[in-house]
Amino acid sequence: MTKAQTNIAIRLREPQDDAAIAAVVRAAFGSHAEVRLVEALRRDGDCVCELVALGDDDSLTGHIFFSRLEVTSASQFLRAAALAPLAVRPDLQRRGIGDALIRAGLSACRDAGCGLAVVLGHPNYYARFGFSALLAKLLDAPYTGEAFMALELKSGAVGGHRWKVAYPRAFSSP
Questions:
Q1: DSSP assignment, residue 125?
Q2: 3-state secondary structure at position 150
Q3: Residues near 112 by beta carbon (within 8 Å), at least 6 away in sequence
Q4: DSSP symbol at 44
Q5: pLDDT in tens, the chain (174 residues)
Q6: Alpha carbon 153 to chain centroid distance?
């Protein structure tokens, strides 16, 4: 039985958080690849929203990053964001921290004018936030399959059109 996280504070990332973010991301993923991704996205100016979760003792317990996507259909442009990565300290997972980060991040993306969000992740987990592999089938993207999902942040944003999705350069860097 795990203890429920009682006081989760979510706020925007501040530069002094970067070392703690790197530690949480590295611990959650077991490698430095996602840390390098976050650093490259920041350096390239591709951030739509970056949030951290703080626990009861104000220590950094989680992190989420939404990057800018280029989404076009003919001469139309759709403001969109990719959720990647989401990280929670391994000893604090399954306590609602990831859930709180996702909900706050999606709200921030809506506030930033994004009409669409995409994620590459576990279908059962992300479906509860409204992400759909079916909607993602309207997107020509570097990713496909049931793990590639999309969520309209503005009703009717996708509009049944086919959209071409280009991820920031950092996603294709080694």
A1: H
A2: strand
A3: 48, 49, 79, 81
A4: T
A5: 234 445 899 999 999 999 999 999 999 999 999 999 999 999 999 999 999 999 988 999 999 999 999 999 988 999 999 999 999 999 999 999 999 999 999 999 999 999 999 999 999 999 999 999 999 999 999 999 999 999 999 999 998 889 999 999 999 976
A6: 13
Provide the 10 A C-beta neighbour count for residue 169.
11
Determine the Cα–Cα distance for residues 58 and 63; give it in Å rounded to an integer.
14
Integer Cα distance of 16 and 143 in angstroms:
33
What is the model's pTM?
A: 0.94
Helix (H) or strand (E) holding 163: strand 163-166
DSSP at 59: -
b/e burial code for range 11-34 (CB count within 10 A of at least 16 → b): eebeeebeebbbebbeebeeeeeb
What one-letter code names the amino acid at 106?
L
Contacts of 54 (CB under 8 A, 6+ apart): 8, 9, 10, 11, 60, 61
Dump the DSSP string for 91-121. Answer: GGTTSSHHHHHHHHHHHHHHHTT--EEEEES
Q: Are 125 and 150 in contact (CB under 8 A)?
A: no
